[in-house]
Amino acid sequence: MQNLFDEVASLDKRCYEKFLLSEDILMENASNGMAKYILKHFKKGSKIIVVCGSGNNGADGITLARILHVDYDVSILHVKEPKSKMAILQKQRADAIGVSTCDTISTCDVIVEAIVGTGFNGVFEKSIEGIIDNINSSKSFKIACDIPSIGFMADVTLTMGGLKKELFLDDKKDFVGDIEVINLGISRDVYETDSNVKLLEMKDLELPLRTKQDSHKGSFGHLVVICGQKSGACTLSALAGFKMGAGLVSLVGKTQPQNMPNMLMFEQTLPKNTTAIALGMGLGKCEDLSKYILDDVALLLDADMFHNENIVDLLKWKNLVVTPHPKEFVELLKITNIADINIQTLQKNRFLYVEMFCKKFPHVVLLLKGANVIIGRDEKFFVNSYGSSVLAKGGSGDVLSGIISSLMAQGYEPLKATINGSLIHTKLARLYKGADFSLTPEDLVAQIGNL
C-alpha cells in the first residue's frame, strides 16, 4: 500500500524546516526527476516543448527545459509570464543559458504540460483552452507535471514527492495516464508522513488458499444469498461465492430459481450454520428483512437495499459491508440524512462523502464503486485504482458481492474481505483475454480459477 495525501505543501514545508531542504533544492530535484524519465524513454536530440504557466508548476517546467537544454531540442511556451518568485528566478536561469522559447505548438516528440498544479479550481482563458486542445490533438507523447491541468490528457503524470488523492478521482481517470512519483532528493519514506488514506496494490492481495488438508466443506463457511424478484442477480452472486471458496452456498427465498446450478442449495429459511449473508441483488421490494438476517453473522448489502428505507435499521449491524455504485450511494446518503446531492456532485467529491458516511457509521465497511473504488471504515480509507470500463456491465457488481461475502463466510473480517474482494474483482477483469467490450459476469466467475 502507498500513502495518498490531500496535499503535499505541508510535506514540502516539513522539508524546509526539519531537513533544511529549500524550495529551490526541491524544485531542482523535481525537475531532475522528470529529466531522468525523459532520458530513459526518449533519445537525445528529440524535440520537446514545455508549456509553462506563471506559478511554481510553470517554474518546474522551466527548470526541466534548462536541464534538457543542448541534449534535446527543447523550447518553452509561456502561456503566461512568470509571476511567482521561483518562476521568475527559473526563467532568469533558463534565459542565461539560452533556452529557446516558442509561441505555438508545433510538431514535436514530447510535450510537457506545466501550466497549473494542485489546488487550482479556476477557469482557463480561451487562449489556454485552445492550447490544451491543440496539445491533445497532437501525436506527441504527453507528460503532465505533478497533475494534469484541466482538460489535458496525459500519457503519464510525473507527480512530485507523494501521491495526491486528486489523481484518483473518477473524473481524472481518463486524464492522468500512468502515474509515477518523482523523488525530491530524499526517500519517500522520509518525505512522507503516514496517511489514513492508502492506495492498494496487487501485492496486497491475500487469497483464501487452503493450506490445511484435514478439512471438509464445513471448514470453509456457509454463504447464504437471498433470492428476490430477479433470480439471475442472486444466482450470479452465489456462483461467484462458491467459485471463490465458500464450502457451502445456499439461495434462500420464497421460490427456487429456475435452472439453478447443481452445486447450489435452496432453502426457504436461513440455515443454522450460516456464516455470511448477501442481501439485495435482484431482491426487489421486500418489507420484512428480519427473517433474512442472523445475530452476529456477517452481512453484505447491495443493489435494491439502497432504495429500501429499512436499510437504516440494518446499518446498526456489527459485521456489515455496503457496496453501492454512485447512484445508489446518493440515495443512501439521502436516506441516512447525510446529504441530498446529485451524482455529479458526488463524483467531484467522492472522498468527502465517503468520509461523511464513515463518520456517521464508523463500524460499517463502505465500498463505493467506480473507476477508482474507494473503501472506507471509520477513519481508514483505501483506493483500488485497477478498475476499468471492462467491468461496466450489468451483473459485474453481483459477482463482486458474491466474492466479498464468500470471503466473509470463510472467516475474513469485513474490511479485509472487502479490500481483497475488490482487488480480486479488478484482477479478474485484467485476466480476461477477450475484447474489452465483450466481458460478461460469467466470464468474471470463470476467471476466478486463474487467480
Notes on the protein architecture:
This protein is of the alpha/beta class and 451 residues long. It folds into two domains: 192 residues, Rossmann fold, CATH 3.40.50.10260; 241 residues, Ribokinase (UDP-N-acetylmuramoyl-L-alanine:D-glutamate ligase), CATH 3.40.1190. Helix content is 35%, strand content 18%. It contains 15 helices and 19 strands. The strands form two sheets. Strands 8-1-10-19-18-17-16-15-14-11-12-13 form a twelve-stranded mixed sheet, with helices on both faces. Strands 4-3-2-5-6-7-9 form a seven-stranded parallel sheet. A hairpin with a 4-residue loop joins strand 17 and strand 18.
What descriptive keywords fit this protein?
single chain; 451 residues; alpha/beta; Rossmann fold; twelve-stranded mixed β-sheet; 19 strands; elongated
Please describe the topology of this protein.
Blueprint: E1 2-5, H1 9-18, H2 23-41, E2 47-52, H3 56-68, E3 73-78, H4 85-96, E4 100-101, E5 110-114, H5 126-137, E6 141-145, E7 156-160, E8 163-164, H6 173-176, E9 178-182, H7 188-191, E10 197-199, E11 222-226, H8 231-243, E12 248-252, E13 265-267, E14 276-279, E15 298-301, H9 311-314, E16 320-322, H10 326-335, H11 343-348, H12 350-360, E17 365-368, E18 373-377, E19 380-384, H13 396-409, H14 414-431, H15 441-447
Parallel strand pairs: 1-8, 2-3, 2-5, 3-4, 5-6, 6-7, 7-9, 10-19, 11-12, 11-14, 12-13, 14-15, 15-16, 16-17
Antiparallel strand pairs: 1-10, 17-18, 18-19
Helix pairs in contact: 2-3, 3-4, 8-13, 8-15, 13-14
